[in-house]
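Appendix B. One record, verbatim.
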Amino acid sequence: MKDPLTSPFGVMGGFALAVLMCVSTGDFANPSHREQQHDETVFDGARAAELLKAARTQADPLAQRDYHWMAALILTGMRIQEFSHLTVAQVRLALATGWLISRKEHCKGKEGKRRANEYCVTAQLRIHLQALMRISDEMGVTHDGLEVGQPLVWGRNLNGGASALSVRSYEARLKQWAVAAGLDNRISPHWLRHTRGMNVVAHCRGNNALKVAQLALNHASLRSTGVYVQMSRESFEREMQLVDGAGRLSKADARRLAAGARS
């Protein structure tokens, strides 16, 4: 088995694992533990692209790893607790069958009513899953003694041992890239799930985009998916202007009209 400090990451190998350890133990950042503490916000296409670009353009192997798992979250809408338990074996099977299936014990739901979630492996998602598998192998960390096998994304536990990257670490890394991209630092991984829902509804070409979003996000009820059909104020205004066929007033004209109304 390869020495993790002399893995194919080269001289970066030891540094990479050291940073992973710091992130897992909270020394790298101090993020919130609960996604629910943040406002549920959606990243539009431009902001999501900026987030990914911040990591993609860095040569650091940790940055490349983060780029691929952030992209995978956007392309699946998977909850971070669920994603953090993925193994290389699961992903290898997904690439062969076209469906990524998470274990039901890692999925949201009441005890006894949980079901395994399924995610379609699209061409774009396949690229990122393959990259994460390669990076996991390159880490060269032994997974002897791990009951679930080789994690898709490596990290360190509080005792310093190799394990799957923790939810806390995902949160910290995501915040780091959001700050680097000049985005809202309140971000949590759940925002990427909402981004997936909005993307499906906005770009679906079928007659039932809401149903497609429900299946994509593995919502038990269509009511949970209804939030993704709500329009922003800006989108509503743009659509109404198109309906009426009138151009929007310039800010200067709007101010003059407002001043006249007050006088």
